[in-house]
């Protein structure tokens, strides 16, 4: 099979009947625009529109999937070019960093990182060479050359990628200057913020006290009182909406929610804002504030996203030296059925609320999440998340969720990525895997072909647009 | 492929080798009689043998799989024709209810409800039209016409379905009048009760106190004393046996069992029957009574079925307005390995006891249930239950259970349904999926074809008959 | 298809494309030598090199997979030829025991036991007859005849099996006389011990006190003091190393680890060694000692293996009469992400430590183990263990682990068996399933064929050799 054909059939199930149906379904969705309602691209990238500096800065250093795997084989974060919290970068030679990736390319066999990176090199940069110690320098040089061209600047790529809308993720206190600059520029790309208030909702977040102070500053409210705090949050949500936001996002350690009356809530607020909070109080406060966020979403119609269950900073050595979000967050078990009960009891039957829930504990797909989303009008399931945004992971998601919740209680795909240039391949992987799953249903006579076409279109494009008002 | 062929191959794995073996295996089991040892059909249906009123009353209103999905898309239970606890039915026009199903038919793509309903329309009613807003009225009219014919009355369908025996599920205090009427009628169908004593075993059941009073009334024992209570239970089991019962069924919130001496048991009985019970006491009492049920089964040879782990009435709004069993029961995690330990330690090695355990927590299949059933002579596994009685669900059950427990520590299929007309298609789905799984084992040279034939027959028919003495 | 062909394709995925690639991959690994870094073969077997007594003593009585299944169907351990703790063997006629297996052969359909035993009969003994009541005596006689031949003695089989190295599992206090005898013999087979100190690390082990006394005796240290105890453990590890050991093994009930200072550790040691230990103290001590074992491994470079999560002796009747390891150990849930945190925080970033972790709770593969092993340099995943060392089990392991941890954070295969004659077929099953998985990746264009060849070789052979220094 020729190279082009091989890539054409990537991730299609091997069975000839199923593959033929997959090919047909995929043909109708592969060129649809990309709707990106949840991700972590830095908006400065598109505000500045500067060239990406080099392959290591583009593909290795910011990608925790990549450097966590290299670290697991014994390479230090310093050797991989990361800059520590004191601003020191041990390895400043990007070519060396890139070589370390290429020399260890076998570590990535079977992972989505390999898939994404190979597809990205091929589809975005036109490089079909396999990475290895032998090819490292050539590929590095080719990439460098490409990155220097105007066609490979962020905005040019945004257009080439056919991105219809891109949501970033932003602190509640962020003034969204980069978003303002994009809006005020002549460029027409749709880039919108997402309201992520973790730092002001979680008393155990190291930045909690500072963030409350900033919250007061940016709103003019006194966020040291419960009333002022709540007003400030409402004001900030409105500010985000004015800059295009259609959603909030919440990265809590658990799915715990709690119903408190105003008096108890105010007392609790005082306790958690004065000194080091008791862990039980912190959890109660987070649970209470998720409830308040749902109440506010009912008012202002922002989609509410919950991403719970990551045990952050499992490795304190890494955290102390390099900070958060560097690949040492590990999933734990999570209880949605009891945790979400207060919130769903109060808001679950509200058809206008869109409460999108994700998980890092796959055991909850069939046991809790699909049964809940398949009942409550307000609840929807986010796509397979993080470690599970992968061919097997997406397939398991569909197999474990669909029979109970169907397709239309899911919220469509999002790429959830910090790696801007990987956006199209991430969508492409999901489209391919979803088409393969739908083709299986057709081959087993559970769906007719036209039903599969319609569903593929919804999962690849229409559903995310509809759920997130994009 | 012609319509008939398409249906012939439904749910068969697409691989040509595996599909050919599946076809051969399925041909030998597809027409076997239906053995139905566990289900929720109302016996009045077969006692009265009245025509089904209309499509909505037959296919939508009583089926919580169907209306939970429609509810998840924002349709209210009132719009779906449900009657509330005060006897009010908001939507009395069945045609409207039926239209709401048809207009939202896309929600069911990939679910077993779609499969069951389409197979039921085709196989039972001869309707091959796809449901949609456009076809709703035509299908409604055709169904109405069919339902008016004598061939579509319950007993005629029972015979057409080739049901060899049908077990219902009945409260411990039920006088089984409908079963008596069936037995006293000229009709020969085998319909038997199942002893389901949840309401008299669970102090937290709202009907507990009333049920104890009824228990005294129907037995003449004083069920307010522990001795009288135990005698009454024994007497009731005997009464159910006289009307053909071969099994009990227990729907506890957990798999907790406990060994108590008589003195402590009597004290506990007094505590839980006087006023609102302490939750720990309630759990202890349920655990103790499961133990007593096993002891009684050892005496009277009733098969003991345990269905734990459903968190009932997750939505209090639904429960308050429409009551229980309306689609808002959500699974939780469950601990069989420690929970069942007291019961298995005392009774697990009794070869004459048949203790059939099911789960809504699929993580326990390979971790706990298969290892337990693959060791203890008394323990057997019930089929994939509730949300997991579906093509992927049954397949996962076989893949996760068989390698440790084999096929013969499973108890055969049961349809577990309230929806009488769906009985044959539910058996058919299980037969198809089991044949597909066995065909895979043959294609991978793990089984010879004759072994697969024999196993398919056991899983489709012989095993349930043998385990439940039918 | 002829008999030989059938066996050639055993466990290969049925899809023609995938099967062809599997065949090609498997051809390159099927004859590689066997590296066996973890197992439970009695070293006396190879020290004595006596003929195996008979089929029941070889294939039924020592194999808890086999007699647990027969027990689940109601056969007593006495009928199956087991000898109780008082030395009484109820059934002394091996032919009767063998007949009971053959009469119940259908129970094993779909299990790895059937696969292993059929492959073993065919590949090791040249017997292609299917077991049944009808064939029991013939097969018994043929096996008896084979076992009497010199070619079927343990050392001859060891050589025929092409075993490059075989590790046994030995108590910390074992003087390793059988290993000494093997080393001192003229025979060249590599048989090495593994340091398994459970009995001296677990205060709740019934043999704890006795084992501490033995520890003092064999080392000359006073193991009733904490200092003496620690010195004795170090000395014993050194002794094991001198006889070739490259690893330790730890079978704890949980994955709990704990960081204690020396003063607290010494106090704890006193508490748990004086009388019946408090359960919390026992757990704390085990957790502390896992930490100490990791510290010692950092010094002496023994690979550290952890096999947690088995709830031992679930059936007290069996345990009282026949003792431990007789098939009634049942998996429970396990928390690696919090349990291992202290150990990984202290040692996880040590590239020279090899900490190999296994699980009986498959939910942890994708949620905890792959994310941990895919980050920490010290941590590796052991192969699919015990109930999951099976075709579906190994496949699930690869599908759930690979996308996050890749292949090279796994430690290669080990057979983990007490059943010496089953060693080659266990490796063969793993090789076949791994090749099938890799072939799927190739067919879906996730790997090139040469990458799959290299990976298959690593998983079948090179990786275990490298990780365990064999």
TrEMBL record, chains A, B, C:
UniProt keywords, alphabetically: Isomerase
Q: Where are the transmembrane segments?
A: none
- Enzyme category, top tier: isomerase
Q: Kindly give the Gene3D superfamilies that the UniProt entry links to this protein.
A: Metal-dependent hydrolases, uronate isomerase, domain 2, chain A
**A molecular-function term among this protein's GO annotations:** glucuronate isomerase activity
- Is Transmembrane found in the keyword set? no
Q: What EC number(s) has UniProt assigned to this enzyme?
A: 5.3.1.12
| InterPro entries per UniProt | Metal_Hydrolase, Uronate_isomerase
Give the catalytic activity: D-glucuronate = D-fructuronate; aldehydo-D-galacturonate = keto-D-tagaturonate
**What does the record list as GO biological process?**
D-galacturonate catabolic process; D-glucuronate catabolic process
Q: Which domain of life is it from?
A: Bacteria
NCBIfam families the UniProt entry points to: PRK02925.1 (NF002794)
What family name appears in the similarity comment?
Belongs to the metallo-dependent hydrolases superfamily. Uronate isomerase family.
Q: What is this protein called?
A: Uronate isomerase
Q: Which organism is it from?
A: Phytoactinopolyspora mesophila
Q: What is the lineage of its organism?
A: Bacteria, Bacillati, Actinomycetota, Actinomycetes, Jiangellales
